[in-house]
Design goal:
Elements: E1 8-10, H1 12-21, E2 28-32, H2 38-47, H3 57-63, E3 73-77, H4 83-87, E4 89-93, E5 98-102, H5 105-112, E6 116-120, H6 127-139, E7 141-142, E8 145-146, E9 152-158, H7 170-174, E10 177-181, H8 185-194, H9 199-207, H10 235-248, H11 259-267, H12 269-280, H13 288-293, H14 295-302, H15 308-324, H16 329-341, H17 344-357, H18 359-378
Parallel strand pairs: 1-10, 2-9, 2-10, 3-6, 6-9
Antiparallel strand pairs: 4-5, 7-8
């Protein structure tokens, strides 16, 4: 079932801000497809959460965690738990001739100190486990143990007809602030740049967005329904593939007989065919240094391969450079020359990248020589001369 109109859809950056801002007593439920970054956004947000609890020297020493580290994340996959994993083991109280349950250490941790309690795959869990989680979300207590007042509860669920999951319980839904994570491709590319993925992988995904992940409105449009036995690409798979390709040096040796079957095994046949072709032809590409040194010469090198998709590759490379480096006035002039050759849509996209990623210094340096181009583009006026 499509989740359209069932809950609000948010980007990665919006969800991260929501997780940091929402009160600890309000649980958050994150819905979304597999491999889109549900775990990543929780861990990233937790790094920016602060608690004075961890500024007390005794607590820092006891829990081996400091204020600047944010909140620890205690993560459990509910589909792998049974009721006993939550209630714990019975312990004999010889004085009263009764037994009491001793909960598992991870649940006590969420009671003794502020953490982000991240419970994944709720709608794959056993019914008894779901009921236990319901009580934690509702009353923040379980078997006589109460969560720390600053502990935040976040649950995650996979959504859609392609998953084997249980039906939603309206009472569960009502207890949490519920969103569907729909990250943009640009957020994926920014994340991949941040963790050091290869520029070629990023450039491919920037210009071949239909291969980023399964999407019934793009890659599979007009084809058969989703095939659960078929290997499809997803965001997590691309990140893992890039890491393995760098480790095995496959991107620099695309003729290696292992390259294609390795890529296809991780992102599927269609995406692999396009990716391998892209990497093999990458020697005809230009580097970001080529663009920023002499755009006209770089454009000449591109020759007949210059196209809208190639321009997207270049914009992607520039994004990574602008985020990490200070742009000189001479480099800004080359960006101006590039802008004059870009299609209008790509021209505005590049300017958007500059304003969002370049910082104030780069923004001033670049905009001082490109403002007239952007103004002409937005008003449909003739472009200025070089």
């Amino acid at each position: 079932m499509s989740t359209l109109a069932q809950c609000i859809q948010v980007s990665m950056s919006t969800l991260e801000e929501m997780l940091r801002s929402i009160s600890a007593e309000i649980p958050m439920c994150i819905r979304g497809a597999h491999g889109i970054g549900k775990s990543t956004v929780v861990h990233d947000a937790a790094k920016d959460m602060r608690s004075d609890f961890y500024s007390i020297p005794e607590n820092v020493q006891k829990f081996n965690h400091g204020f600047e580290q944010g909140l620890p994340v205690v993560e459990r996959r509910l589909s792998q738990l049974t009721e006993g994993d939550l209630t714990g083991m019975p312990s004999l109280d010889s004085d009263r001739r009764t037994t009491v349950f001793k909960p598992c250490d991870w649940l006590i941790q969420a009671c003794d100190q502020p953490v982000v309690l991240f419970l994944d795959e709720r709608n794959r869990a056993l019914e008894g486990v779901k009921q236990a989680v319901f009580q934690i979300m509702d009353s923040r207590t379980f078997y006589g143990h109460k969560l720390h007042p600053e502990t935040r509860v976040v649950v995650a669920e996979n959504v859609g007809d392609v998953y084997t999951v249980q039906q939603y319980d309206p009472a569960e839904v009502s207890r949490a602030a519920t969103v569907e994570l729909v990250p943009t491709v640009d957020e994926l590319l920014a994340y991949m740049r941040r963790i050091g993925c290869d520029d070629r992988t990023i450039a491919f995904l920037s210009s071949h967005r239909n291969h980023v992940e399964y999407n019934p409105t793009t890659v599979e449009k007009g084809k058969a329904a989703f095939d659960s036995k078929k290997k499809y690409p997803d965001r997590r798979a691309w990140v893992r593939l890039d890491k393995e390709c760098r480790k095995l040096n496959l991107l620099n040796n695309p003729s290696n007989g292992l390259f294609y079957p390795f890529v296809a095994s991780m992102v599927g046949i269609e995406a692999a065919s396009a990716f391998v072709k892209f990497i093999k032809e990458y020697k005809y590409e230009v580097s970001v240094e080529d663009v920023l040194t002499d755009w006209k010469a770089a454009k000449k090198r591109l020759g007949a391969t210059a196209s809208a998709s190639k321009y997207l590759d270049i914009i992607s490379m520039l994004t990574g450079y602008i985020e990490k480096n200070k742009v000189t006035p001479d480099q800004a002039k080359q960006i101006r020359a590039l802008m004059l050759d870009l299609p209008a849509e790509h021209r505005l996209k590049l300017f958007s990248v500059i304003t969002k990623s370049g910082g104030q210094k780069n923004l001033f340096t670049i905009s001082s020589v490109t403002n007239d181009i952007i103004l002409a583009t937005t008003t449909n006026a003739p472009l200025p001369t070089e």
